[in-house]
Amino acid sequence: MKKIVLVLLAFVLVFSLAACGKSDDSAAGKTYTVGTDATYAPMEFMDKDKIVGFDIDFLKAVMKEAGLNYKVKNVGWDALFASVKQATEIDFGISSVTINDERKQTYDFSAPYFESTNLIMVKEGSSVKSAADLKNLKVAVQGATTADDIISDLKGKTSSDLKRFESNALAFLEMDKGGVDAVVADNMIINEYVKNNPDKKYVAISDSSFASEYYGLLLPKDSDLKAKLDPAIKTVLENGEYAKIYKKWFGAEPDLTNLNAQQ
Ligand code: ARG
Question: Ligand 1, from 36, 141, 145, 172: best to mutate by most atoms within 8 Å of Cβ?
Answer without folding.
Answer: 145
